[in-house]
Specification:
The chain is α/β, with parallel strands linked by helices. It contains 9 helices and 15 strands. The strands form 3 sheets. It has a 7-stranded parallel β-sheet, with helices on both faces. It has a 6-stranded mixed β-sheet with strand order 8-11-12-7-13-14, with helices on one face. The radius of gyration is 21 Å and the shape is globular.
């Protein structure tokens, strides 16, 4: 079946998602909404960098797109939570489903602001549409839960993401290049829990595991000498690597943890977790229990700063569009919908 879809987007991740929509054989692009006036009137192919014109021109006004009654819209725009909620409600009330990663608390609706939950549910009911807020990738939620299904007893689950940020344009959010005694914005009190807490709660609910609280930890590693990265010069003694963890706690013990290890050079902090199989980045899912399990996922493309984070997030959203288009009205999570797979993504064989 073919689905009429729209794309409401901004930034690098949005362009990646747009390309994935254009190149999907089951998706027909109806329109593109942009927030940058310099992008208005550009063909969607130019925005996506596909080099093949679509005849669909970007517009600032979402009205014409919504008037076409698309089945579902991919929403990757930024802005305040209030603005995002207003946009999502407008889409849903028009009758179009929506897939987004722009409202992190709604990854786990039960713990989100219930006033926002009520607004979104009402919009879904008005338009008869489905809404999915998905996390950044399947490593944390789907892979950890699938692996837990091969367990007799569970004691703890830990998901670790390891990345090298040397080729990133912007690294200041992680504190890189800043004073070693300065707490980077990403690990200020409460920030890790706001980022990963909803995902941890989603996993815990699926495992019927009550959580008492969250705990956050972080470590910084200084640059042993000055060196250059894409974002600029890193002075000796300034922050060059960061490790942080947020854990869902039960009776004073961490039971579900998400850890992120970020380096500007792969040789820094060698005592911290390293990417699997010698690749520049990857993931590890560890289950302490009976039997114990460890799943390593390497990302050979992680040397590119857009992979796997930006690309994986964008592709997960786009590959979820058919499932959301077919879903019953209401709020969804990746656990209430069929799996998002690479269906129809195989390249045609060439002789």
């Amino acid at each position: 079946m073919s689905y009429l879809v729209g794309h409401w987007s901004a930034g690098h991740r949005g362009r990646r998602a747009l390309r994935a929509i254009i190149e999907h054989p089951d998706l027909e692009l109806a329109g593109v909404v942009v927030g940058d006036h310099r992008e208005e009137g550009l063909d969607a192919a130019e925005l996506a960098g596909t080099g093949r014109r679509t005849g669909v021109l970007a517009a600032a006004d979402p009205g014409p797109l919504l008037a076409l009654r698309p089945h579902v819209i991919s929403y990757t725009a930024g802005g305040s939570d209030r603005r995002v909620v207003d946009d999502l409600c407008r889409i849903l009330e028009s009758g179009a489903g929506v897939v987004t990663d722009a409202l992190t608390p709604m990854i786990h609706p039960a713990s989100a602001d219930q006033a926002v939950v009520r607004r979104l549910r009402a919009a879904c009911a008005t338009g008869g549409a489905a809404c999915l807020v998905a996390g950044p990738g399947p490593m944390a939620d789907m892979l950890s839960l699938l692996l837990s299904g091969a367990s007799l007893h569970l004691d703890a689950i830990k998901i670790t993401e390891v990345m090298c940020y040397a080729r990133r344009d912007e690294v200041r959010e992680l504190g890189f290049g800043g004073p070693i005694g300065h707490r980077p914005p990403v690990v200020r009190p409460g920030a890790p829990t706001r980022m990963w807490g909803p995902m941890i709660r989603l996993i815990a609910d699926q495992l019927a595991l009550p959580l008492d609280d969250f705990a956050e930890t972080h470590e910084l590693c200084p640059a042993p000498e000055p060196f250059d990265v894409r974002a600029g010069r890193i002075a000796k003694g300034t922050t060059a690597a960061l490790r942080f963890q947020v854990s869902g706690m039960l009776r004073g013990r961490p039971v579900i943890s998400v850890e992120h290890v970020a380096r500007l050079r792969e040789d820094l902090a060698p005592h911290w977790p390293a990417p699997p199989f010698g690749e520049p980045g990857g993931y590890r899912v560890e289950i302490a229990g009976e039997p114990p399990w460890r799943l390593d996922v390497a990302s050979p493309g992680a040397a590119d700063p857009a992979v796997p984070g930006t690309v994986a997030t964008a592709l997960r959203l786009v590959n979820a569009l058919p499932a959301v288009a077919e879903a019953h009205p209401g709020l969804h999570t990746p656990l209430t919908l069929p799996p998002f797979t690479g269906r129809r993504r195989f390249r045609r064989a060439t002789r």
